[in-house]
Design brief:
Blueprint lengths: L3 H7 L8 E4 L5 E3 H17 L7 E5 L4 H13 L2 E4 L6 H11 L3 E4 L4 H10 L4 E4 L7 H6 L17 E6 L9 E5 H14 L8 E3 L6 H14 L3 E3 L5 H7 L5 E4 L1 H8 L14 E4 L6 H11 L4 E6 L3 E5 L18 E5 L12 E6 L6 E2 L3 H7 L6 E9 L5 E6 L4 E3 L2 E3 L1 H9 L4 E11 L3 E10 L8 H11 L8 E4 L13 H7 L6
Parallel strand pairs: 1-10, 3-4, 3-5, 5-6, 9-10, 9-11, 11-12, 12-13, 23-24
Antiparallel strand pairs: 1-2, 7-8, 8-17, 13-14, 15-16, 16-18, 18-19, 20-21, 22-23
Helix pairs in contact: 2-3, 4-5, 7-8, 10-11
Length: 504
């Protein structure tokens, strides 16, 4: 098999008219359409000067054609570089300068703006691609041949995609993911999640992120099944479509919004087989509320841009709050600050090793070296523990660890305690500079609509009954909503900035 696309193609349905994607207006794209369109696109890319190893950057809205562009890059041996559609000019300019793509594909609306950036960065070709099959890239591809000889790649070395991390602690870093990384992950998830012929995926995730592009799309391509493709998450539309699908993948926010709809019940889920959640921690209240309402258990898994998926709860033996054991071929361990492996149950930094790990960071060998142990384990930066059954439990990011009065405080532990208090919807715990303790444990709380008007004093008093005193927040602040990124992760850096100076 010459590359990842070739592996997908070898698994395509025997019937060329079998549906690959059904769009929002009911339009369908068959697997034969996939094959022919990706050949059109790959031929166009080559005609634009793209060669094996070149980068193709894309800042486009979600559409079937955007998926075809990704697959065309695989066929041509190019590295696909999707950019968050929310990125502003400065963010795009940095990535273009760092990655130096051969071609930039953007929405028609942004061409004039981004063409100037591209010119400044020496990028000769800027093409456009819209959600309604419009744009110069789609138009110029029409006249291209319907056959394309897939480019041979080195599975372990050649980069299939570069995804830039969020950059909340500095400039974004480009994680280089190889054909082997993506193939091994799709195969492992297909196995662990029990994908089978007849499974239909409801795809409501963005596709500039590993969750929507690789976890969802690649796994269903490996299964050679159909996807119902939503441009964006809409709870009522999802509920209406659930009877036609068997698998749904989402972030915790999706499940919270589904539970807020009275139309979401067991009947709506009657044909479902699997619900998966990721990209951010799932509240236990949501986990149990979902099971009570629908009879289904949400399956949680754990991964990051650099590692793709590393662990997953097995179907039928899920543990609420855990992200499950490592996937086939993946190892996980917990270490202290010096790299010594800790015993089961002890909290430390999670490290993983396997064929899912990134090749490295684009043009940043020093950062690459610093993130890997000599024995090949990747330092995730996430705090957690592994229980006696081998299940991984995430306690938070290492950078979010609060050290108050010389004692380590794991935010997740305090958040779980706060979230059990009547009147609390959810919470986030951070550390802020404190003149006496170094850092003061600080809680930010969202009150539950219709619940009791819980106060700061009530929360602190309750926590003093459940937690050691050094873990109890010095202050509790109330907000209408926690700031989140596009994948639902709480942006604690924004909270720290907003509340800076609280204890000074």
């Amino acid at each position: 098999m010459s590359n990842l696309y070739s592996q997908f193609e070898a698994r395509f349905p025997e019937d060329p008219d079998a549906v690959f994607i059904e769009g929002v207006a009911g339009e369908t794209y068959s697997y034969d359409t996939l094959r022919r369109t990706t050949a059109h696109f790959a031929n166009l890319l080559v005609g634009l000067g793209v060669r094996k190893g070149d980068r193709v950057a894309a800042q486009v809205e979600k559409s079937p054609e955007a998926i075809f562009l990704y697959l065309a890059c695989l066929r041509a041996g190019a590295a696909f570089l999707p950019m968050n559609t929310a990125y502003r000019t400065g963010e795009v300019d940095y990535i273009l300068g760092n990655a130096e793509p051969k071609v930039l594909v953007c929405t028609p609306e942004r061409r004039a703006e981004l063409a100037d950036l591209a010119t400044g960065r020496g990028i000769a070709r800027v093409m456009t691609l819209g959600q309604a099959r419009e744009g110069s890239f789609a138009i110029e591809a029409i006249g291209q041949p319907e056959e394309f000889v897939n480019v041979d790649v080195d599975w372990a070395e050649d980069v299939a995609a570069i995804l830039y991390t969020s950059g909340t602690t500095g400039r974004p870093k480009g994680a280089m993911l190889t054909h082997r990384n993506l193939a091994s992950n799709a195969k492992a998830l297909h196995q662990v999640w029990g994908f089978r012929r007849g499974d239909v995926l409801l795809h409501a995730l963005p596709i500039f992120h590993a969750h929507g592009l690789f976890v969802a799309t690649n796994t269903q391509l490996w299964n050679a099944g159909p996807m119902l493709f939503l441009n964006a998450f809409d709870p009522e539309r999802v509920i209406n479509l659930l009877s036609r699908v068997t698998v749904f993948m989402g972030v915790p926010t999706y499940y919270v919004r589904l539970l807020a709809s009275p139309g979401f019940d067991r009947h709506a889920c009657r044909n479902m087989r699997l619900f998966v959640s990721g990209s951010a921690p799932l509240l236990e209240e949501t986990f149990h509320g979902f099971r009570k309402r629908t009879g289904f258990t949400i399956l949680e898994r754990y991964g990051m841009t650099e590692t793709l998926m590393s662990t997953s709860n097995p179907i039928g033996t899920e543990k609420a709050g855990s992200v499950g054991p490592p996937l086939p071929g993946v190892e996980a361990r917990v270490c202290d600050d010096t790299g010594d492996v800790l015993a089961r149950g002890e909290v430390g930094t999670i490290e993983v090793r396997g064929p899912n790990l990134l090749k490295g960071y684009w043009r940043d060998p020093e950062k690459t070296r610093s993130e890997f142990r000599p024995d090949g384990f990747f330092i995730t930066g996430d705090l957690g523990r592994i229980d006696e059954d081998g299940y991984v439990w995430i306690m938070g990011r290492a950078k979010d660890l609060v050290i108050s009065g010389g004692f380590n405080v794991y935010p997740k532990e305090v958040e779980l305690a706060i979230d059990t208090i009547d009147g609390v919807e959810e919470s986030a715990v951070i550390g802020l500079p404190h003149p006496d303790f170094g850092e003061g444990v600080t809680a930010i709380v969202v009150r539950k609509t219709g619940g009791p008007a819980v106060t700061e004093a009530q929360i602190i008093d309750r926590l003093k009954q459940d937690l050691a005193n050094y873990k109890v927040p010095k202050r509790v602040f109330f907000v209408d909503a926690l700031p989140r990124n596009t994948m639902g992760k709480v942006q604690k850096n924004q909270l720290r900035d907003r509340l800076a100076g609280t204890y000074s």
